[in-house]
Amino acid sequence: MNATGSMGLSAAVRPCCRLLVVFQKCPCPPSFSPSLFPKCPHHRLGDLRVLAAGRHRHPSLVRAAVAPAPSPDAAPALRRLSTSVNPVPGDKAFDRIYVQGGLAAVKPLVIETKPEGDVKEPAPEAPVEAPPEAAPVREESEFEKEAWRLLKRAVVNYCGNPVGTVAADDPGAGPLNYDQVFIRDFVPSALAFLLKGESEIVKNFLLHTLQLQSWEKTVDCYSPGQGLMPASFKVRTLPMDGSNEAYEEVLDPDFGESAIGRVAPVDSGLWWIILLRAYGKITGDYGLQERVDVQTGIKLILNLCLSDGFDMFPSLLVTDGSCMIDRRMGIHGHPLEIQALFYSALRCSREMITVNDGTKNLLRAINNRLSALSFHIREYYWVDMKKINEIYRYKTEEYSQDATNKFNIYPEQIPSWLVHWIPEKGGYFIGNLQPAHMDFRFFSLGNLWAIVSSLSTPRHAEGILNLIEDKWDDLVGNMPLKICYPALEFEEWRIITGSDPKNTPWSYHNGGSWPTLLWQFTLACIKMGRPELARKAIAVAEKRLSNDKWPEYYDTRTGRFIGKQARLYQTWTVSGYLASKMFLENPEMSSILTCEEDLELLEGCACSLTKSAKSARKKCSRSAAKSQVLV
Ligand code: GLC
User: Fold this and answer.
1) CB neighbours of 266 closer than 8 A, spacing ≥ 6?
2) Over residues 290-319, mean pLDDT
3) Distance from the CA of 577 to the center of ligand 1, in angstroms?
4) How many angstroms separate the CA atoms of 145 and 546, rounded?
5) For labeling, which of 42, 104, 133, 386 is most exposed (least CB within 10 Å)?
6) Which residues 6+ apart lie within 8 Å of 244 measured at CB?
7) What torsion, rounded to 10 degrees, do the Cα atoms 474, 479, 482, 487 define?
8) Where do the record's region annotations for Disordered lie (predicted)?
9) 568 and 173 in contact (C-beta within 8 Å)?
């Protein structure tokens, strides 16, 4: 958990007036008010002292322009190779989403109809045919019944409608911010509800978080990008302006400005896109993703991810703690989890973006980035016995485009645990890659999502599952699944975590076991035709989850103890378990989240666009890219 609550900070979080128009869908009477939050008035029965003065965020911190549009003339010719969303010379600029000065945080008015002339590209994958209701009905086990009771108890309402689930409902522990709806935590809840045929909560969640996206957000006089999605939000009940009797509900998002360490929730927007596609595929309600405001939301997220910076790699550059691991853990730079979610979100966006003149360049930028990203990760993040042996024999300080050791990795970096741990069969994607730095830790979510999204080749995907099977005691043990392996210990723990007492070795993010990861594991197993592996992991979890009161995480090398500071009745533990069971029962439903290998993407590898005969370029040619799949 990573927040201290949002009171007392001078962060400006407010919708602009036009944004309130969007809330006319709220079932409560629309209120046009200069308040800080989207609101829905009602009369509250309970005690409101807790919502004392001082909560209102500073309204005067209005942000300036998000990003001025660069002049197309100023762009050098080489920009044609860029995978960014910035327009290239001579190209008609895609539907611009830059917000110019004065209009910051103003989202286009919502018009729910599709503009005429827009053509929707047919989704590359067939829509999911079988509605969940059609699946053979099986009597739910007692575990499942309990899990459903808990999941329903976790539902949060806003203006009388369900909009999400709290992170945890542990009566024995202070809420901290576990009483908020976390974007990433809600994903397995959303899937469980969708698979059960209950889609309203998911639709509400998608639309309300979309509104939060464009709020002004300020952290110490600095405004993060407009497309940023919050890490979490809370429904608060506040006295209505000038009234002692009337109260209203408001949504109060946390974009990281209250989070411990002020971490940026980079994964939120990526999960939002992934969930949006899943919602469309399972409900057939493609109208939602076609809405103008939803299309704008997708573009705002992509704009943040695709804009040019100082990056030398196609992978997304982020600060530490910008995903599920939301504390300092040495995952700044280009962590695998973010890359896998980024790839997946790009694939999903490509299916959902309405094709028209205004989006052509964006779609091209997406394709270019997908090609470059998959090449980069497949080529440089993958390790197995053979690759480790190559690194072991690397020459260093090579200066040329032909360098074999491109990132100047000193072989001494290969950790001693890995020398013994890497199996003969199988392999995995390393946790991070930077100049002269490979983080060899195994991170479960990144590896599993690489399989689900087809960022990995089928051969890699098999290799990862083989490794998990081979290292079952280390990665599953008494509770699936280790968040990462191995733990940072001794000096490494002191230096890399900053002596974090929550992330001690084999606890929490530092080698703890997180049952919520079961659902991603199940999806990966189903995709690779190995459901029995998922069943085995679920059976391990079933032995303990209910007795242990559905904890957030487990500690020790093999996951024997309930985590030192773990919350009980953690919602994504509950919903992750339910989603896993339901996917196993209806494996065809996993296609709402998976993507298949796209050979055209490999052919489009940005490097192959150049006609240069230099051998370094040839290495990244069409055939090299294809060989990643076929080998
Ligand atoms: C912890 C986890 C984070 C999760 C949050 C709410 O901070 O690290 O991933 O979203 O708790 O459950």
Assistant:
1) 316, 318, 322, 323, 338
2) 95
3) 17
4) 11
5) 133
6) none
7) -70
8) 116-139
9) yes
- Say how far residue 99 (Cα) sits from the centre of its chain: 24
What residues have CB less than 8 Å from 594, skipping those under 6 apart? 452, 453, 454, 523, 527
Q: Is the CB of 154 under 6 A from ligand 1?
A: no
Hey, what amino acid is at 231?
Answer: A
For residue 207, say if its preceding peptide bond is cis, omega within 30 degrees of 0: no
Is 167 touching ligand 1 by the criterion CB < 6 Å? yes
630 pLDDT above the threshold of 80:
no
Question: What is the Å distance from ligand 1's center to 435 Cα?
Answer: 29
- pLDDT per position as a tens digit, 414-469: 999 999 999 999 999 999 999 999 999 999 999 999 999 999 999 999 999 999 99
d(CA 118, CA 330): 45
Residue 16 confidence (pLDDT) above 80? no
Which of 1, 270, 517 has most ligand 1 atoms within 8 Å of its beta carbon, as the pocket-test mutant? 1
Structure tokens given for 32: 């046009």
127 pLDDT band (50/70/90 cuts)?
A: low
Tokens standing for 102? 């004065």
445 C-beta closer than 6 A to ligand 1: no
3 state SS of 274:
helix
Nearest CA to ligand 1 atom 7: 1
> 80 and 72 in contact (C-beta within 8 Å)?
no
> In 26-124, at which residue ranges do the beta strands (DSSP E only) sit?
39-42
If 0-12 CB within 10 Å is exposed, 13-18 middle and 19+ buried, where does residue 3 land? buried
Spell out the residues 6+ positions from residue 561 whose beta carbon is closer than 8 angstroms to its own.
554, 555
Q: Say what the pLDDT of residue 305 is.
A: 97
- Backbone φ and ψ for 61, nearest 5 degrees, come out as -85, 75
Cα→Cα distances 349→178, 270, 578, Å: 30, 10, 27
DSSP states of 337-395 as a string? HHHHHHHHHHHHHHHHSPBSGGGHHHHHHHHHHHHHHHHHHHHHTEEEHHHHHHHHT--
* Ligand 1 nearest-atom number relative to CA 325: 8
